[in-house]
Amino acid sequence: MSSKQIFIGIIFLCTLGSANARNQDTAVVKPEYIEGVVAMVEGDYSTAITKFTPLAESGNHLAQYRLFLLYVNGWGAQKNLEVAAKWVKLSAEQGNADAQLALGRLYDKGMGVSADQQLSNYWIEQSADGGNAEAQYIFALDLLAKDMQSKSNVDNALIWLKSSADQGYVSAQSLLGLMYLQLGSHDPGEAIKWLKLASAEGDLEAQYNLGVAFAVGKGVLQDNRYAHMWLNIAGASGYEKARVDLQKLQQQMTPEDISGAQELARECIRKKLKGCS
């Protein structure tokens, strides 16, 4: 599917494999469903709608979620938020975690449904409970936004972040690593592990925080070269705080150390940010 074909009116995770759900059924192996997914991948959206509609009308939550994606983006039919909301609600009510997250967003923005923050929160929490990594991250942020001073809120947020991070959700890995370092309640090595994983996936904030960790020796042995390397990489991608701190750090380094750090950064980029420190 060409990126040019993707309408981003709402940020939806459009996975073309099977959706997260607690009650997966046999729809994924039905010929019509497979044919619909293939048509979707190939950009033949009208055929996808034709294949998914009978399945969705018979109550198949996976096909219902696919129809939501098609109608919300205007793929194969005129964009119709009300129709999209109808299908995603039916899917969500059957426990499809991806659909639950999408429905929560619709209620948050009032798109295809009346805006309702309480329902938005409810469906995002249901999605998180159903195992959706992105919903778990969002739910954790919501807990932290409500009261960062509440130990219960913070502890619960960490649980959700860990679950999301374990599934490879990069933003959760980045925030989890930072919180572990800041709170001092977990093994610092565990914090660095998460920051490295997120940094290797290009998360600029994780790269910045990893650079700071090396600069001050928190969770790792203090090393200005590696601090310079990560701040340099983040700064080169436009992270302004990294650029500012890099300039300050260079005042504490010899020209030889700076040259060595720059070579470390070049090597790290050649390795596509994997296994850099």
Walk me through this protein's architecture.
This protein is mainly α and 277 residues long. 67% of the residues lie in helices and 0% in strands. The chain has helices at 31-41, 45-57, 61-73, 81-92, 97-109, 117-129, 133-146, 151-166, 170-183, 188-200, 204-216, 224-236, 240-250, 255-270. The longest helix has 16 residues, at 151-166. The radius of gyration is 22 Å and the shape is elongated.
Poorly predicted parts: 1-27
What percent of residues adopt helix (DSSP H or I)?
55-70%
Annotation field: number of helices: 14
- N- to C-terminal separation? 36 Å
Rounded mean pLDDT is: 90
What Rg do the Cα atoms give? 22 Å
Q: Strand-and-helix sequence, N→C?
A: HHHHHHHHHHHHHH
Secondary structure: number of strands: 0
Structural class: mainly alpha
| Oligomeric nature of the chains | single chain
Largest beta sheet, briefly?
A: none
Keywords for this entry:
277 residues; mainly alpha; 14 helices; 67% helix; elongated
Task: Describe, in short, the structure shown.
The protein has 277 residues and is mainly α. It has helices at 31-41, 45-57, 61-73, 81-92, 97-109, 117-129, 133-146, 151-166, 170-183, 188-200, 204-216, 224-236, 240-250, 255-270. The chain is built from 14 helices and no strands.
